[in-house]
Input
Amino acid sequence: MSSLMRIMINVAIVAAVSLASSLNDVNASPVDTYEFKDEVTKIRFQALSKELRCPKCQNQNLADSNSPIAADLRRELYELLQQGKADSEIVDFMVNRYGEFVLYRPKVSELTYVLWFGPAILVLLGLVIVVLIVRRKPAKKEELALTSEQQDKLKQLLKDK
Amino acid sequence: MNKLIRFIPLILVLALGVVLYRGLSLNPQDMPSALVGKPIPSFSLPTLNNAERIVSAQDLTGEIVLLNVWATWCPTCKYEHPYLVDIAKKSELKLYGLNYKDERNAAQEWLTHYEDPYVFSIFDEIGTLGLDLGVYGAPETFVIDHHGIIRKRFAGAIDTRVWRTEFEPLIAQIIAERKQGE
Output
C-alpha cells in the first residue's frame, strides 16, 4: 500500500469519526425564541428549565421535553422571570401546582432525608467496615513460632535425614 | 456468630429484591396532586357554549362537584365520554367540564355529537386554569366537596371499574360528611 493511500485512509477515518461525534451533539431539545432583558435572566431561565421536571414525560426536564405541557411551563417560567420573580418564588409556584415531584433537586425534608443523606451514610458505613477489617489483629504470632522443645525436635528430624 | 455474618450479604440482596419487586407494581404516573385539601384556584373564564358568560370558582362551590378536564384532541376523552354521560345521569353529583386548550367550534360539535353530560364546560383556551390546577394532560378529573375543597385528582380515563374503586368510596364519604353537617 502506498503511503499516499495510507494517508488518505487516515484522513477518511478522522473525518468519519468527527462527523459521527458532531451528529451526537445534535439533540432534539425544543427551541423557543424568548427574548430576555439581560444575560442573567437568560442564564436563570436555562438553569431553572433544567432543574424543573416535566410532569408529563417524567424523565425529562422542561428544557428537554417537547410535550405541550413543558412548552406551557417554559412560557410560564419565562413570564415569571420577566415579572422579576425570585428563583425561590418560581419554584414555589411550580410546587404549589404540580407538587414536589417537579423538582429534580428535592427539598430537604423528612421525606427526602434518606435520599439526601443515605449515600453519605452508606459510604461512611463502608469505610468503617473496611477500617475494622484492616485493623483486625492478625492471628497471634506466638502460636506460629515453635516452642524450644519443638525446635529441638525439628533439628533432630533434620539431622536424621 | 461468624457463620451468621456470612449470611448478611444474602439477606441484604433478598431485601433489595423485595423492594425492587414491589417497585414493579407501582404506577410511576400516579402522582398525588399538590392541590388536594386546597380550595379551587380562583379563575374567571367564559363557558364553552356562551363566550359572554363568565364563570368563576363560586359557580363550582356548594355542591359535590366532579370537574372533568377534556378536549377534542384527546382520544382517551372519547373513550371516557359514555361513562361520564352515565355518571351525570345516575349520580347526584354535579359534573362540570373544563375544556382544556381546545378549539371552541370543535368542542361544541363534540358535545352535540356525543351528548353533553356537563352542567357547563369552562372554556380554557390557553390553559391558565389548567396550569393553576396542575393539569398536565387530559383526561383528568377532580372531586371537589361542598366547601369547594379539592379532595381528589385522578389522571386518566374513568370507566366502570375506576369509578367504583377510585371515586365511589370518596364520594360516599363526602356525602356522609355533609349529612353530619361538617
